[in-house]
Amino acid sequence: MQIPFVNLQRQHQPFISELQDLVSELLATNMVMGGKSVRKFEAEFASYIGVNYALSCANATDALEVVLRAWEIKAGDEVIVPANGWMSAAEAVLLVGATPVFIDNKPNGYGLDEELIEDKVNDCTKAIIPIHLYGDPVDISKVSKISERFGLKVLEDCAQAHGASVEGKKVGSWGQAGIFSFYPTKNLGALGDGGMIVTSDKSLADKCIAIANHGQSKPDRHHLLGRNSRMDALQAKILSLKLPYLDQWNNRRRQIANYYLKSWADLPVVLPSSTDNSVWHLFVLRVDRREKVIAELSKKGVATKVHYPTPVSQQPIFEKYSKSEAFPNAEQHAPQLLSIPVYPELSDSEVEYIARTVKSVIEAVEGHQ
Ligand SMILES: Cc1ncc(COP(=O)(O)O)c(C=O)c1O
User: Fold this and answer.
1) pLDDT-based confidence at 369, cuts 50/70/90?
2) Is 59 in the pocket of ligand 1 (CB under 6 A)?
3) 207 and 352 within one domain
4) Is the CB of 111 under 6 A from ligand 1?
5) Residue 103 dihedral angles phi and psi, to the nearest 5°
6) What sign for the dihedral angle of Cα 161, 167, 173, 176?
7) 84 within ligand 1 shell (Cβ under 6 A)
8) In this structure, are 239 and 250 located in the same domain?
9) Which of 80, 148, 152, 363 is most solvent-facing, going by the fewest CB within 10 Å?
């Protein structure tokens, strides 16, 4: 059996004729950027997340930068970001001229350790960007309370967590703002790039719209230093088509993840200690002889990936900002992280094959009987 890490062809198969119709619809109009389809998807997404405004961008990295610019975060300011995760959050902080301040993850989890936030706060700290990494929400209630105490803004990075909730409230609706990515492999993915800012703050929403549109606050009036970051109508139409399936896809991800957790409970690996709130964008376990396990799984047709081989704090561009500080959990976990396919389009027999194959490979490689 050959199992790819993602299978977008299979995801799109049931929609082929609708997707073709969308392209035909666009070919019959002049409105291929912005317009009604984009406004429609923004309204649907805002309602799904439970916020007043959803503002589309070209991608989630832009979305992060646009919000930080709208908050006027600049040189001399500090923003707290996780050491473990994808680099967009720390990158956006640098793009606005501010300083990223890294924070370690928990010994048994992959999201930032809320207990470490307080020690990083000083007079320059303006905001925090928690990442709901791998689809598993951080303790956002705690992050929000700590941030409120110190007057920090919270920008939730939900690029991997579409549809995840905490205490019945969707991620993205907890902070003053949240961002999402619609990169094709995300839990809700486009057929190209796309991003979204969500917020219930009207003045922030107005400013973000202007910044993402060359700083234009009304026609022919460019009051702010902006940029160009927009979603095209085709991506918006595709995302509107897929959004009603998101919860069902997330439930299938949960079902697969629970099957893996049960199947591998006795293996000499560290299984994800994800919460019930996770939407399992990725299933990441930790194993000692990772490269050997990857090679053996590949021989048996199971594709894997590593998210991420190097902590963000150790990337050359950020070394100066991590000030040679140690992030013991992020650093210890990085060489062990291994992502196993968990997408909703996997058939039961593929899930069973993955469960059996991972078990036998790890038992053989780790010498466990
Ligand atoms: C956690 C996280 N944040 C931000 C991004 C950036 O998303 P985009 O590729 O849409 O810029 C990604 C993309 O992989 C991500 O995983």
Assistant:
1) very low
2) yes
3) no
4) no
5) -140, 140
6) negative
7) no
8) no
9) 148
CA of 88 to the centre of ligand 1 (A): 6
Q: What is the pLDDT of residues 58-86, one digit of tens each?
A: 999 999 999 999 999 999 999 999 999 99
DSSP per-residue string spanning 178-199: EEEE--TTSSS--SS--EEEEE
Give the confidence band of 108 by pLDDT, cuts at 50, 70, 90. Answer: confident
Tell me which residue has its CA closest to atom 7 in ligand 1: 60
pLDDT tens digits along 188-228: 999 999 999 999 999 999 999 999 999 998 899 999 999 99
Nearest ligand 1 atom to alpha carbon 85: 1
Same domain, yes or no: 153 and 16: yes
Q: Are residues 45 and 116 in the same domain?
A: yes
Q: What range defines the domain where residue 318 resides?
A: 246-365
Q: Are 251 and 208 within one domain?
A: no
For 306, list phi and psi in degrees, rounded to 5. -125, 120
Task: Using most ligand atoms within 8 A of CB, pick from 67, 87, 183 the residue to mutate for ligand 1.
Answer: 183
What does the pLDDT read at residue 266?
A: 95
Q: Token pair of 107, please?
A: 């010994």
**37 Cβ inside 6 Å of ligand 1:** no
